[in-house]
Design a protein that fits this description.
One of its GO terms (molecular function) is metal ion binding. Pfam families: Peptidase_M16_C. InterPro entries: Metalloenz_LuxS/M16 (IPR011249), Peptidase_M16_C (IPR007863). With 114 residues, the chain is mostly helical. The protein has two domains: 69 residues, no CATH class; 43 residues, no CATH class. Helix content is 61%, strand content 0%. It has six helices and no strands. The mean pLDDT is 79.
């Protein structure tokens, strides 16, 4: 697991460095940093190079578990399927999975007829 995290950190670091090498992208990033006075608003969604070295696999997994427990999740099922069976399958999975025991969820249906 640690090797995978290090590989992903190297990949992200390269992507972030590419932003700094692209004058237009870097200018946009700097503008956002100046426009938003709050620290959390100033951090881009893809992170900062200087934060990568501090990330540990355990920290990433802890955040992942918190996201599963507290963040909103949307599930889209597209194609031809039996509605009742799909609802039962999703509900069974959510109930059986310990990760979702406290999750708030709803099933919404979008029907497109031709």
């Amino acid at each position: 697991m640690k090797e995978i995290v290090e590989q992903e950190k190297r990949s992200l670091k390269q992507q972030l460095q590419a932003i700094y090498d692209n004058k237009m992208a870097y200018a946009s990033l700097r503008m956002e940093e100046e426009m938003f006075p709050r620290v959390l608003d100033r951090v881009p969604e893809y992170g900062r190079i200087e934060d990568l070295d501090r990330l540990a696999p355990e920290d990433i997994y802890d955040v992942y578990k918190k996201m599963l427990a507290h963040d909103r999740m949307d599930l889209f099922i597209v194609g031809c399927f039996d509605e009742i069976q799909a609802k039962e399958t999703v509900a069974t999975f959510l109930v059986q999975s310990a990760r979702f025991e406290n999750a708030k969820w709803s099933i919404y249906q979008l029907v497109v007829r031709r």
